[in-house]
Write a structure and sequence with these properties.
The chain is an alpha+beta fold. Helix content is 36%, strand content 31%. The chain has one domain: Nonspecific Lipid-transfer Protein, Chain A, CATH 3.30.1050.
């Protein structure tokens, strides 16, 4: 599955569970490398998630990893900590916000 498809499904899932989003006001910038990758912004605010192509607005947390690692993370086959310890994921910005992304991916 391509990264954009995974992110589109994630956005739909999150919007189906607004109780997970009520206290969030964040912008995740996801830099996904490899085939099917790209830069995507996931804005979560006012109880809604919106996916767009990567923009120029400063992100709360920027997460960089490969498409296969992103898909594996979003499907629960690996953890963000394992990817981080293996040097396969890079986080810039608010680390706490970045850590919250893993739980949102699996919601």
């Amino acid at each position: 599955m391509a990264a954009k498809e995974s992110l589109t499904e994630l956005t739909a899932r999150l919007n189906g569970r607004p109780e997970l989003l009520t206290d969030l006001d964040v912008l995740y910038r996801l830099r996904l490398g490899g085939e099917g990758g790209g830069t995507f912004d996931l804005r979560i605010a006012a109880g809604q998630a919106v996916l767009s192509e990567g923009g120029t607005e400063p992100a709360t947390a920027e997460v960089s990893l490969s498409v296969p690692d992103f898909v594996s993370l979003s499907q629960g086959q690996t953890s963000g900590m394992a990817l981080f310890m293996g040097g396969r994921i890079k986080v810039d910005g608010d680390l706490g916000t970045a850590l919250k992304l893993e739980s949102l991916l699996r919601s």
